[in-house]
Amino acid sequence: MKSPSAVNLHKTILVLLIISLFFMVSVLPCHAAKDPAPALSVYVGSLSCKPCHEKEYASFTAYAKKSNSYRSIERLQKGLNDQDLKKCYSCHTTGYGKPGGFISVEKTPLLKNAGCEVCHGPGSIHVENAKPASIIAHPVIQICAQCHTSEMIQAFKFRPLIHGGGH
Fold first, then answer.
1. Which residues of the chain fall below pLDDT 70?
2. For position 157, what pLDDT does the model report?
3. What does the DSSP 8-state code read for residue 143?
4. Of the residues 64, 72, 90, 162, which has the fewest C-beta atoms closer than 10 A?
5. Is the pTM of this model over 0.90?
6. pLDDT at 10
């Protein structure tokens, strides 16, 4: 039979082991139990859409004025200061001011025009998995209204049409 001091020692060791195990489980992260963080879709440019959406891409580049929207900035940039130019970028480029969006013609040339992703959202995940759920398949008027404001309509005398010339 074990002595009382040996039993107490075993109990103490057992309690310490349980406390240590509890501490490890509650403090250390458990990567296996958690879902990985969802990937952030970033802008890839309209050319990335062309392989799967060839007809829509051809129509967009032929008829949608926004497919060449950076030309407006080039025409007017001599008379604009840096702050005014940045205001133009938000509507005349793809994703300006957003993660992975337009930075400059030199750094992000594929995003210099207002492309497919202005209406359909960043496309990197959709390009990878081709799932309709990974892109905005059917844009709503609120997306158009981000740039086609009443102030801009009056200033530039244009009429915004949902899907007008887009596809």
1. 1-38, 153-167
2. 58
3. H
4. 162
5. no
6. 60
Name every residue whose Cβ is closer than 8 Å to that of residue 70 and which is 6 or more positions away in sequence: 92, 93, 105, 112, 113
Tokens of 148: 């086609």
Retrieve residue 89's tokens.
């970028």
Q: Per-domain residue ranges for the chain? A: 46-156
How far is Cα 12 from Cα 4, in angstroms, rounded to an integer?
12
CA distance 112 to 122: 14
Q: Quick one: CATH architecture of 46-156?
A: Orthogonal Bundle (1.10)
> Do 94 and 43 contact (CB within 8 A), yes or no?
yes
* Cβ(94)–Cβ(20) below 8 Å: no
What span, in angstroms and rounded, lies between the C-alpha atoms of 160 and 145? 9
Q: Which tokens sit at 6?
A: 């040996």
How buried is 139 (Cβ within 10 angstroms: 0-12 exposed, 13-18 middle, 19+ buried)?
middle
DSSP assignment string, 18-58: HHHHHHHHHHS--TTTSPPPPPPP----GGGTTTT-HHHHH
Distance CA 119, CA 127 (A): 16
Task: Say if residues 124 and 41 touch (Cβ distance below 8 Å).
Answer: yes
Check the CA dihedral 96-97-99-103 and report its sign: positive
Amino acid in the structure at residue 125: I
